[in-house]
Design goal:
The protein is α+β, with helices and mostly antiparallel strands. A hairpin with a 4-residue loop joins strand 5 and strand 6. The N and C termini lie far apart (142 Å). 56% of the residues lie in helices and 17% in strands. Helix 3 packs antiparallel against helix 4, helix 3 packs parallel to helix 5 and helix 4 runs antiparallel to helix 5. The chain has a single domain, classed as SH3 Domains (SH3 type barrels, Roll). The protein is elongated and about 85 Å long. A 5-stranded antiparallel beta sheet has the order 6-5-4-1-7. The protein has a two-stranded antiparallel ribbon with strand order 2-3.
């Protein structure tokens, strides 16, 4: 009887072990996570967009460097031509140059949309030309007459074209125009944009020389050989007393 009970209990233990070792059902495969795939596609799209922007920036930098080099070469050539012109200046040549500037001034004054301040600045250059001519400084007189025509040409050009015009291009002056800061202003680097990097501050009455313009912006050089952009309303024509 006791033996039968032992056998019965052993059978129960074996059954229990068999139940515990029963294998677990295999889990079904997890379906692809669609949100993760969409996120990956967005990352790839943004990476492609970033690469395109970087390529555009590189191209713009190369173009700006080319423009800067061309402007530097033009400025050097203008300086050489200016020296040669002064050596060859004669009384008839100076008189003719001043007469051309006077015609341009008359045309500028007849315009009803030209700012009075711009007319005054052009007149200041023309007065310097006539004063130098009266003293026999024909080379300097021709310089000021040419500067008068260049300044008037810039005013007329900007008057007929909007700043947003996509065809707007940098125009080099055939002769540098002397300027000075009307107040404390900032010199900006490369492109004339409101967000352009500031190269430094210029104090009021700082001497500048304009070599080109782009709309209402002037590309200038400072007395310490720095170059950059300033807004034309922040500067004015500079005429040294020793020039006439």
């Amino acid at each position: 009887m006791l033996w039968d009970k032992v056998i019965a209990l052993s059978g129960l233990n074996i059954t229990g072990c068999t139940t515990l070792l029963k294998p677990m059902p295999v889990a079904a495969p997890i379906p692809p996570n669609e949100p993760c795939e969409a996120q990956q596609r967005e990352i790839e799209r943004l990476q492609q967009l970033l690469a395109e922007k970087e390529a555009l920036i590189r191209n713009l930098n190369v173009r700006q460097q080319g423009q800067a080099k061309a402007l530097q070469e033009t400025t050097s050539q203008v300086t050489r031509d200016q020296v040669r012109l002064r050596r060859l200046a004669t009384q008839p040549g100076a008189a003719s140059s001043i007469a051309e500037a006077e015609v341009a001034m008359t045309s500028l004054k007849s315009s009803q949309i030209t700012a009075p301040e711009q007319i005054l600045q052009a007149q200041r250059l023309l007065d310097a030309a006539t004063a130098s001519y009266a003293k026999g400084n024909y080379g300097i007189a021709m310089d000021h007459a040419a500067q008068t025509r260049e300044f008037i040409g810039m005013v007329k050009d900007n008057r007929t074209r909007k700043a947003s015009d996509q065809r707007l291009a940098m125009v080099s002056f055939s002769i540098p125009v002397p300027l000075r800061a009307k107040s404390n202003i900032n010199l900006r680097r490369e492109k004339p944009l409101g967000s352009a990097i500031k190269l430094g501050a210029l104090k009021k009455d700082s001497a500048l020389t304009a070599h080109a313009y782009l709309g209402d912006w002037l590309h200038v050089q400072t007395s310490d050989e720095r170059s950059g952009w300033v807004l034309n309303t922040l500067v004015e024509v500079r005429v040294n007393d020793s020039d006439h």
